[in-house]
Write a structure and sequence with these properties.
One of its GO terms (molecular function) is pyridoxal phosphate binding. It catalyses: (S)-4-amino-5-oxopentanoate = 5-aminolevulinate. Pfam families: Aminotran_3. The strands form three sheets. A seven-stranded mixed beta sheet has the order 4-10-9-8-7-5-6, sandwiched between helices. The protein has a four-stranded mixed beta sheet with strand order 1-2-3-13. The protein has a two-stranded antiparallel sheet with strand order 11-12. It is globular, with a radius of gyration of 21 Å. The protein contains 15 helices and 13 strands. Helix 2 runs antiparallel to helix 11, helix 3 packs parallel to helix 11 and helix 7 packs parallel to helix 8. Helices cover 37% and strands 14% of the residues. The structure holds pyridoxal-5'-phosphate. The site of pyridoxal-5'-phosphate has 14 residues, from helix 4.
Length: 437
Amino acid sequence: MTSSAELFATAQQLMPGGVNSPVRAFGSVGGVPPFMVSAKGAYLSDADGNDYVDLVCSWGPALLGHAHPAIQDAVHSAVDRGLSFGASTPDEGKLARLVMDRFGGVERMRMVSTGTEATMTAVRLARGYTGRDLIVKFAGCYHGHLDSLLAAAGSGLATLALPGSAGVTAATAAETLVLAYNDREAITAAFAEHGDKIAAVITESAPCNMGVVTPEDGFNKFLAETTTANGALLILDEVLTGFRASDAGYWGLTGRTEGWTPDLYTFGKVIGGGLPTAALGGRAEVMDYLSPLGPVYQAGTLSGNPVAMAAGIAQLTHATPEVYAHIDAKSLELQGALTEALTEAGVDHSIQRAGNLFSVAFGTSETGVHNYAEAQAQEAYRYAPFFHSMLSSGIYLPPSVFEAWFLSSAHDDEAMNKIFDALPAAASAAASAVPAV
Ligand SMILES: *Cc1c(COP(=O)(O)O)cnc(C)c1O
C-alpha cells in the first residue's frame, strides 16, 4: 500500500495543505500526518499498517467507538432503502424526538449537515427574531467557520495564532463583540453600552476549542439571565459537548439542575453518529421564525438525509447511562495517569476539565486557564514532542494543545493500559522541550 508520506506528498498537490480541514495537516506539531484506512472500536489503522489507540474519536462522533455494530447495521439497512429522497422521511422526527427527550427547552428542531450551518442559522435566526444586529461571542470559542464568528475563534485558529481570517469584511467583524470568557463584568458592561442592539450571546456550553476551559460556577446561568433581561437570545453551542459531556451535553451538568434553558441550542458531531448531520433547536416561538413558517430563510438539499438520520438514531439510542458512566470513569483514570506522569517528569501543568472532556495546559499550575489569553500564554511548545512520543507509541492524540481529548465506550482496559504505558516517555519529552527561537 502507498505510505502516509507518499499520500501526504501527493495530497499537497491536490488540496491546499494536503487536507480538507486544517488541523489534519499537523501544522502545530509538525511531521507527516498518518493517513487512516480503517477504524474499529478504540483503534485507528493507518496506510503504513500501524494501529493507534484513538483519543480524537473523529473529534467527538465516535462516542461508542468506531464502527459500532448497531450504527453500522442501521446505516447498511438505510443505504438499502436509498441514499437521499429530497423529501421528508419518518426518521427525521424520530431523531428530533430523541434530542427533545434529553435537552430541556427544545420544542422545535431543524436538521442541517454541519455544525457551522447550525450556528450560522442560529445567528441569522436570532437577528431575524430580535430585529437586532450585534452578536456577542467569547475569545477562544469556536463555532464553525461562518464569517461573523471567526473573530478570535479557537480550534485551528488558536493553533495557527491568527487573529481571525482573511476574507471577512470589516463590516461583518464590526457586528461581532468579542469578550473574554468567564468575565461577567465584561458581559454586564457590553449590555449596558449596547443592550438594545445585541441580538444574541453565543457560547460553547463548555469551551473545548482553546483546550478545555471550565465555565465558572453559574456562568452559563448568568448568560441566560442577562440575555433574557435584555431581550436578547442565548445560543448554547453544544456541537462538541452535546451527547458527550453527559446524555444532555454540558447543559445536562449545569442548566438541568440550575433550572434554566437557552433560547437556542446547536448540535453536531455526536448527533450524526459519524455521518454529516447537525441541528439547531429551541423555543417554538423563536424556531418558528424559520422558513417556511417565518421570514428567516434556511434550507438544505441533504438536510435530514435518511442515512445520516439512521446513524444518529442508532447512536443516541445506544448512548445509555452506562456509556456515559464508562467514559466518565475512563476520563478520570486518564487524567490521573497523565498528571502523574507529567509530575514525575517535573513538567508544570494543569488539567482543564469540563465533565469527561479535558485537555492539558503546560506551565499553568499556579493559575489554571480561565480564558483565551491564559490558554495562549501556556508553554505550548511542550506539546509537539509530547504528541510525537505518544504517536510513536501508538497513541493518536489531538494534533494541537488547543483541542480536547476524546474517549469512547470502546476504550477498555487494554486500550487504556496502552495509553498509560506510553505516558512516561512522552512526559520526559515534554520536560526536555525548549521554546522555539
Ligand atoms: C466542531 C464545532 C463546530 C463546527 O462544526 P462543523 O461540523 O465542523 O462545521 C461548531 N461549534 C463547536 C463548539 C464545535 O466544536
